[in-house]
Amino acid sequence: MSQSGRRLLVIDDDTIVRQSIAAYLEDSGFLVHQEADGHSALTWLMDNPPCLVLTDLRMPGTDGLTLLKAIREWDVELPVIVISGAGAVHDVAEALRHGASDYLVKPIVDMEVLVHSIRRALERHELIIENRQYRLELEKANKELKEYIRVLERDQLAGRRVQSKLLPPPAVSFGGINVDYKIIPSLYLSGDFVDYGFLSNRYLAFYLTDVSGHGAASAFVTVWLKQIVRRFFREQEIFNTKDSFERDTASLLKLINKEVIRSKVGAHMTCFVGVIDTHTHEMRYVVAGHLPLPLLIANGRAEYLEGKGKPLGIFEDAEWEVQSIQLPLQQQFSLVVFSDGVLEVLPPDNLIEKENYLRNILSKQQGSIEDICAALQINSLDAAPDDIAVLKIDNEMLK
């Protein structure tokens, strides 16, 4: 540690001792100011704060201990080293009790012992100052962080309310087909979204999407997505005719994909889109990177639908294959679609085992969406790691 510029105050009524100490310390690189008594020393240091005080204990008038007490009232952290020829245990204890950094006994035979004591006291003082500065900075950072979290929680709450307002009404029926859904929110605002509509009093169109990432950005993409889907339905008249039913399931995804890429929202999304002809129970659907695949439950069996496709918002020229299945007309069936958040909370370790677990549970479950969530033990999660969206479609024979 460099002594350059470090000013010390040396106080001793013994002129020879004081001057010899001051000379050695100046030769060691310190700036030294001398005073012969406690009163004049106290007056001087108030106007010229030193880095350290070295004081004799026994002096006429204001002695070293009185001076130490006065310094502590003025500056509790200023290093003070007490030297004395007395060396009584009581004096040592009193000096240390009132905050002396060290206590040395005169005569000081080896002046390097004194220099070492001074350096150690200065280092300890600097460490105290640094720690205090770090603590102040930490307290400031904590205060700013708390305010940031408060604003973030407020924004999250507002975002979730907006998102919830745009979700469709749950537990509705269209042309003999029941639709219900449940979204189990995660700790963070997220991008799971469900929507559906009944077109030309015949075609039930629905989708479940999961926007990448978490937070307000993902949530607001779902809000924006709902608006553009509704606009496409209105402008393109999708699923209003049998030709559109047979043709436009993939066309809808291509329109959304182009819009997502063109808008540069900085997010991609997985999606499952289906449309059911409620007169014939034929369902056409497309899969856009969606996992797990939907489960069709009928005759006590649960089977995953087939299909695959690229997610939306990444590949400009992506194409999607339209799949078609015939849903039971005279038998009970349920189609259950989950977002991938469910995979994060299922007990098995790998994806295949999780999918098998999910299928086995649902093959035994013909009840409501609440029954399904209860069987999977996902309706009692305090804070899921990701949103879990569940969309269930069945026929009225279940009622």
CATH topology of the largest domain: Phosphatase 2c, domain 1
Helix content: 40-55%
**Distance between the ends:** 84 Å
> How much beta, percentage-wise?
15-25%
CATH architecture of the largest domain: 4-Layer Sandwich
Structural category: alpha+beta
Task: Work out the number of β strands.
Answer: 16
- Number of helix segments? 9
Largest pleated sheet: 6 strands, antiparallel
Per CATH, the class of the largest domain reads Alpha Beta
Order of helices and strands: EHEHEHEHEHEEEEHHEEEEEEHHE
Structural domains: how many: 2
- Output mean pLDDT: 89
> Order of strands in the sheet with the most strands?
6-7-16-15-12-13
Low-confidence stretches: none
What would you report as the Rg, rounded to the nearest angstrom? 39 Å
Give the CA-based shape. Answer: rod-shaped
- The CATH homologous superfamily of the largest domain is termed PPM-type phosphatase domain
Structural features:
399 residues; alpha+beta; Rossmann fold; Phosphatase 2c, domain 1; six-stranded antiparallel beta sheet; 16 strands; 41% helix
